[in-house]
Amino acid sequence: MRATSRPDRLWLALRLPDLPAHALAIDLHHDAALAILEQRHVIWANAAAIARGVVQGMDASTAQLLSGCIHQERNLGHEHKLLAELSAQLYAFTPYIETYTSKQVPQSGLLLEISSCLMLFGGVHAFVEKVLQFFAAKNLILAIGLAHSAQAAWLLSFVHYDIHGNESKPVFVERLQQLPIQLLHDYPAQVDTLEKTGFITFGDIARQIAAQSISSIKKRFGQEFAKTLCDIFGIDQDFQQSSLFEKPVVMYKPQEFFNEEIQFEYPIHQIDQLQVPVEHLLQQLADFLRKRQWETHQIEWTLADIYHSKEVMAIYADTAQSHWQLFFDLTLIQLENRDLPFEVDTLTLSCRNIQPIQTHSQLLEFDSRRKHNSQAFTTTAAKLKARLGDACIYKLSYRDSYIPEESNQLIALNQPSNQKLPDRHLASLRPCWLFKSPIEIEVRKRGLYWRGYLTLLSGPERLQGNWWKAPSARDYFLAQRNDYVRLWVFRDLHKKQWFVQGIYG
């Protein structure tokens, strides 16, 4: 392996050993015994719990008996969100940021490639000091590792070495060789096999590679494991020498979002006075979206006064929009249904749920009226939902069931509906109007009576099933009332009663 004063690439690993606790806003210095669980096993414990014998991997019942600890469930969503927020803030230090999350152990953090940023910050030591100050200001416990590759830096974060700034690749490799192979947390099966073979440290693996080749590791332990070792030691997988070509580092792209506000010269106390600023902010949003070829389903308005009181109003559209007109109409509808809670000093428009504009293949259409009608329906439906509520606007979708009243369901307008009916429905007479629940028919001396006497015209068609819940067996008939209205009726063979199920058009 070639020796240089400094590797071409330099990675800084930022491991957050207490990330599960940070994500749940747990006080690390709490006097009571605290533990975080995942699948009923301890993945993190504070000092008080550890002092009473709680260890990682212990089942929840044993930990409770030992320490009487207070426990919470791990929240991976909050952990990922915290890592994303830290990545966005560390973008001020370097544009090369990767997230590392172990699948086997609760160890997560960030990997920064810093070689291109050192002159700006005055060298490695000054850069690391600024990063440490950044995390200290946030009260986040941090373990760091510096090395020539991302995997090597992550491993070296589990031991402490003073960073001077003049470390070379041979120095990093020498430090790596002293580490126990148990730190390869993501490869438990390979580590178990290596331990049984007599391997203890990474130095044992390095000597095996030097004596034979990396191909022997690849054959026995798999391509992925061999690739990880090559990254750790900085060697080429095919030629067993220092890598001639380094893989390009992926540049971090911070998540873009829209957030603009208008601060009024005098407080607004009438809804009508908000129309012009609402339109202005929405036009700015539309310009922001069009320039990036984006669209959105949701925007959020925040009304605030000089005393920092706030009211948030979310606006939704079934179809994603890149223009402002529909959101303007929906906003006005929402404003019509409420009074201003206070005199508004600031109006803020936020949009975070952004997606690329979806390209839809369309048939060549010479009649523009069809397209206009489709857009008009979408706009009308969105306005009705804004005025009446989501629960009032829906469409029907088929659901496979032998029980007719359970054979459809109400779904949102933007969801695809199932209109594929089984053959038994296509081959039988079915009414266009089914009652939500069957209505009982009165049995009189002259015959069946429901708003008039009924005459059975055809049938029966037997439908039975639902044996796993409440068994159902029905004989269905086409019936005609004395006013010539045709009905779909059935006799429940279990209840010995007659019901009307629906009306034919």
Automatic annotation (TrEMBL):
Superkingdom of the source species: Bacteria
InterPro entries: DNA/RNA_pol_sf, SulA_CellDiv_inhibitor
Keyword flag DNA damage: yes
Keyword annotations: DNA damage
Keyword Phosphoprotein belongs to the record: no
Protein name per UniProt: Protein ImuB
Native organism: Cellvibrio fibrivorans
